[in-house]
Amino acid sequence: MSRQTEVLVIGGGSTGAGIARDLSMRGVGVTLVEQGNLTHGTTGRMHGLLHSGGRYAVSDQVSAAECIEENRVLRDIASHCVETTGGLFVKRPEDSEAYFQEKLDGCAASGIPTEVLSAEEARAVEPHLAPDIEKAISVPDGAVDPFRLVVANAASAREHGARIETHSTVTDIRVEDREVVGAELDHASGPGKHVHGTEGGTEIIRADHVVNATGAWAGRTGAMAGVDIEVRPSKGVMTVMNTRQVDTVINRCRPKGDADIIVPHETAAILGTTDEEVDDPEEYPEEQWEVDMMIDTLAELVPMLRDARTIRSFWGVRPLYEPPSVDSDDPTDITRDFFLLDHAERDALDGLTTIVGGKLTTYRLMAEAVSDHVCERFGVDADCRTADVSLPGSEEFSVLRDYMDEFDLRSPIGRRSVERLGSRADDVLETSGPNPTVCNCEAVTRAEIQDAVDQSGSDLNAVRLRTRASMGSCQGGFCCHRLAGELHDDHEEAVVREAWDDLLRERWTGQRHALWGEQLSQAMLNYALHATTQNRDNDPADGDPVDFGAFDAGVAADGGDQRGD
Amino acid sequence: MPASPLTEAISVAIESDVLVIGGGLAGLTSALAAAREGADVRLVAAKQSTLRNASGLVDVLGYTADGEGPLVDPYDAIPNLPADHPYRTVGVDTVRKAMALFDEVTPRYRGGHTDANALLPTHGGTVKPTARYPAGVSDGIASDGRDALLVGIESMTDFDAPHVAAHLTAAGVPFDVRGVTIQFPGDLRADAAITRYAKLLDTNGTVTADGRECPVRAALADRVAAEHDGEPRIGFPAILGDDDPAEIRAALAERLDAAVFEVPMGPPSLPGLRLEDSLFAALDEAGVSIATGNPVVGYDGDGRVEQVYVEKNGARIPNSADQYVLATGGLVGKGIDSDRERVYEPVFDCHVAHADDRYDWFDREPFGNHDFARFGVHTDGDLRPVDGDDSVEFDNVRAAGSVLGGYDFAAEKSGSGVSIATGYAAGRSAARRAR
Asked: Which of B63, B118, B159 comes nearest A551 by C-beta?
């Protein structure tokens, strides 16, 4: 199978989805391919901070200024993905006074509004801050849901005619006469939505231009086209707490360091992070000391974290890049700025552009830069509109609307649904039948699940990312089988079983880093529910045939036993 | 901790021959066994038992420790279990005696007519081997060749009948099975608790269905009848009443002209709660004194427990007994607890063997060979917990149920059986040793 597109975007993270949206809004034909789910790479593995720029205000004021500008744009165009939590830079007695002042000055120079709070004022905002903190700087940090953001970008791109292919791996990039002309793809399950068990296949997509937006994987992608891209992948751990110990982003006010941020995110708080260069963006050690450091170090800011319940940890890989001439030893020295690599100029290879570095907060700006570059190449005369046109879900949306009566949802559930769906709430929640809650921890109803299944095929992990189902305290113990049941409305039993197993495996992977105390107790309960009550560990549908005739056939069939009950 | 004024005011501890700590299946069985031996028995439990989490099926052994199975005869396989398995500690004869006691006090249960396991449908769509089952699920047995109709309730996400039916078919059950979804008659809210359905069916309350008022049992049967295609048996999720499920099943069966059964579900599980009720009733009858809602928070003694302290309204009330049974549960019931560094038994701090590195406590696969599933105390032949050198920790403490280590009840499907057998053995032995 062979198809044609104008621009082939490789990578379904925030940058790739942002480029697909930007270009398709300018009338350019786009195909986006992603090896896993949308957000499969770094985008789905970050702490969810919408930077005010404060973190870069001392070390990198160009990035800081970009952050505050994009922060304001996203609050506007992606309101249903953003929670305006505000943020604090908190100074402990041992943290430098000079740095505190530099932070304030740097924010001022970068256009980031600040306010200095006394310890008492800071604790009035966040009562669980340590008793010995000295003061804090308030900044407009926020929390952003990367899944929702990318899905909304992809949905917008699709509305403007883009083709989006997930679970499709690029196996080769075609080069003819020093020009990239397309790529070969391996579809896990055939083009379109991912459905377990459907036959996959290969496809050749011919393109006028290819954009490499694969982040930490950019070196690997570049190598297929024969160019060197010196990505320096750097891993960082994020530890998820079962509740929000803080409602404001809490940063430690000291120069770069590990374990210096807490981001409230939906029902959880996320502790981060570390910064360690790795060789391979897919294979790297995930270690106990990293989790322990998050808890022990951040407990210096919020003491209750020391004995609080964590529900899982995950690692992400930053797509850091610096021009080879810089040659930093320490990954924390590498700039967080982004780089557009024009391979025609750089490597005398036409038809390929790579975007590396950067951060989620500036994804739209990165997409705009790439789109401007591509449009200039093709002589397309169209302005970028992504900063002005709201994403699907964020149009004319008022959180003040009371959906409770309208959708027969009890109020906390209704509120959560509407927060996730934004202006799509009407479309999604209007159902004819009853709309029971499927995931109790995250208050996700059947209507939302069905909407996600419509969008993402049989992939329950994609449903999870879209809805947050199975992402709360019980980590899917009570709802994985319910999600399987919901999936069965549209898919065959064997397909459902495979998707269900994939979901159980994915949920287990991150929980392993939280197995002590309450969460070990939860893990044992989940194991008992899945293995004892459901016998999913010995599912006869997966194993050898069972000799049913050898077992107790009961005594009721002949009507004999009527005792008791 | 210094004694509170209230503690000092109580000069004499509450006394009994045997004090059982824990109100789950093991604790209830041991209290019953001790009382049957003539002991004066008191039971204290920290909280609601974990039986509400249990399906209500009573497993003895469905798979070997190596994962072979489903086993037809659990008793045959017990002698070949690892030497430190609790079943090996008490021996197969004790398991049989304990199951006989269980049968005697739970007239609603079936399966005692044979040593063979039964295969019962699960709400996940598989079948699982179990030794005893409530009468209400017996018509669902998978080795019964009669065709079946499964009925799901539209607003009940825990039991998706078409999915369960398709999954059972893939599991190779020897009958045709079909699933349909109906709306439950009346106007229960979409998120109504299981107990709301049970209560409505218990009272046979009047509902408005299809524009007319009608008792709920008849209304439910009529909804099902519209989908029924002559299948000789019809399965429902386990919501068919709390007080008198047999009467509800009989009423539905008569109107539908088919046998009616329940498929057990996860928490909150009505069959689990019904089992708890019947065991508490048996304890009442045996004269056991019961106090729930009060955790044991400390003890006196060295090598022998002299008395334990039960926390009640902030005060530490001493409870003294000659013999103690520790039946506080495993990781789920918090009879075994852990932090980032260690795994421990919180009441008597009995030794719990575990790897130093918490990353060795689990397997990489969700259904892998998990160390944590086998965490618990190890005992001598009389179920008395031993320390790291195999010395008895306390002369007069015996452990029963999932506080015991050395077995993975979830993989083996042995949880209820181990609780009943070790509870029986510990209770009986404690009573015989009591002064």
From this structure: B118
Question: Strands A201-212 and A231-241, how do they pair?
Answer: unpaired
Alpha-carbon gap, residue A555 to B64, rounded angstroms: 26
Buried b (16+ CB within 10 A) or exposed e, A63-88: bbbbbbbbbebbbebbbbbbbebbbb
Is there a contact between B278 and B132 (Cβ–Cβ < 8 Å)? no
CA B9 – CA A268 distance, rounded (Å): 46
Distance of alpha carbon A357 from its chain centroid, rounded? 17
Residue A416 located in a structural domain? no
Q: Which residue of A has its CA nearest to B344?
A: A517
Same domain, A201 and A152: yes
**pLDDT tens track for A280-311:** 998 999 999 999 999 999 999 999 999 999 99
Q: Which of A255, A186, A270, A184 is nearest to A225 (CA)?
A: A184
State which residues form the domain around A448: 431-538
Do B44 and B97 belong together in one domain? yes
- Are B372 and A515 a contacting pair at CB < 8 A? yes
Token representation of residue B412: 């083996």
Interatomic CA distance for residues B222 and B228, integer angstroms: 10
Quick check: B365 and A546 CB within 8 A?
A: no
Q: Check whether residue B249 and residue B282 sit in a common domain.
A: no
In this structure, chain B runs to a length of 435
The backbone region for B347, taken as left when phi is positive above 0, alpha when psi lies in -120 to 50, beta otherwise, is alpha
> What's A530's DSSP letter?
I
How far does the CA of residue A300 sit from the closest CA of chain B (Å)? Answer: 18
Q: Is the Cβ–Cβ distance between A269 and A472 less than 8 Å?
A: no
- Of A279-288, A323-332, A361-370, the one with minimum mean pLDDT is A323-332
Domain total for chain A? 3
- Test B163 with A488 for CB contact under 8 angstroms: yes
Calpha distance A360→A263 (Å, rounded)? 15
Closest residue, chain A, to B242 (C-alpha): A565
Contact A90, A126 (CB under 8 A): no
* B168, closest residue in chain A (CA to CA): A541
Rounded distance, CA B213 to CA A295, Å? 59
Whole-number Å distance between alpha carbons of A431 and A427? 9
B295, with CB counted inside 10 A (0-12, 13-18, 19+), is middle
What residue type is assigned to position A152 of the chain? A
Of residues B366, B357, B355, the one with CA closest to residue B405:
B355
Domain-terminating residue out of B263, B291, B309: B263
What Cα–Cα distance (Å) separates residue A326 from each residue in A59, A280, A346, A369? 16, 21, 17, 23
Query: Could you tell me the CA-to-CA distances from A46 to A20, A263, A302, A357, B69 in Å, in that order?
Result: 21, 10, 21, 14, 43
Residue B28 structural domain:
5-108+273-433
AA letter at B175: F
Nearest residue in chain B measured CA to CA from A436: B190
Which candidate in A296, A310, A548, A562 is best for mutational testing of the B interface (most B CBs within 10 A)?
A: A548
Decide which of A542 and B3 is more confident. Answer: A542
In this complex, the residue of B154, B170, B367 whose CB is nearest that of residue A541 is B170
- Dump pLDDT digits (tens) for B360-401: 999 999 999 999 999 999 999 999 999 999 999 999 999 999
Question: Which residues, other chains included, contact B213 with Cβ-Cβ below 8 Å and sequence gap of 6+?
Answer: B206, B207
Q: What is the DSSP letter of A95?
A: S
Give me the number of domains chain B comprises. 2
Residues in chain A: 565
Select the residue from B72, B105, B167, B334 to test the A interface by mutation, using most A Cβ atoms within 10 A: B167
- A437–B157 CB contact, under 8 Å: yes
